[in-house]
Design brief:
347 residues, alpha/beta, FAD/NAD(P)-binding domain, five-stranded parallel beta sheet, 7 helices
Amino acid sequence: MKIETDILVIGAGPVGLFTVFEAGLLGLNCTLIDNLDKVGGQCSELYPEKPIYDIPGVPMQTAQEHVDALKAQIEPFKYDLHLSQRVEAIEAIDCIEGITTWKVTSSEGIECITKNIFIAAGAGSFEPRRPPNIDDPDKFIDSGVSYAVRSVEKYKDKNVFIFGGGDSALDWTVELAKVAKSVSLVHRRDEFRGAQHTEAQMRDLVKNGRVDLLTPYQIESINGDNAVTGVTLKNFDTKESVTKEAEELLFLFGLNKKLGPILEWDLDLDQKKIAVNTENFETNKDGIFAVGDINNYPGKLDLILCGFHETTLAVQKAFQRVNPGERVPFGYTTSNTKLQKKLGVLD
């Protein structure tokens, strides 16, 4: 299949979806390619029910609700979506008056011709880190072992053990304490890498008896035949072991992140991310932009709202590359009737 598009977006997470909106306002069309089988990126794949509190104007919504809102926001605009495949190769095929045209080939044989490539691939390809020293923990997948929370209801009235010391472990300790029969947080030391506010919430729950904080411990074995029935923990200091009843084990050790084929595209890297400028978030390659968590620059923050800002500015440059010599049309959606007609809020 051959496609021509104004912007090819690699990654259909929140920032990739918002690119469609910003491009649509300027009359540009987008094609999105993602290696997952659904849109939403990590928000949908890893933590759809995780609450998000820092989207401007939205006090709280789950990650999946955020994705659903973005999908609704881009409904007025036409875009192509290709899932369950990844971009394998990028080739410059033309350069006229300093504007490069690219051919992008996917793992499923799609050939896309475009002047603008937006890499919005989040952290790249990823897989959850497994617990150390445990043989084949995946044999208990769907029978008591999980690496992400996809349904809070699954943990209702269950004895839950959460392993990890970062934001995800703290976030889900606080959230699951609302529905689980018991929640135990296991970490190798009594220090955490997550937000101080969430850690304070967790420690309040410990004081109130809603959470059992087990430090300094690590997992020694998973107990059970066809399903998890318990867990054995080993104390780092005393080397003593303790066995506890458990029904659900949630391992939140983070992700093994890989850039995959991106490493072969001759893009400048900075701390295992793609280096960009801060004017329009273009890489060292003409017409290739990196937006969202995949990029790096001085002062970079891995926040969804920062990715929205980045892709908004990058789309301005993409318009200039598609329409050389034309002024980028700018207007406020609150008052611009042309934009309101595009959005379908004005006949």
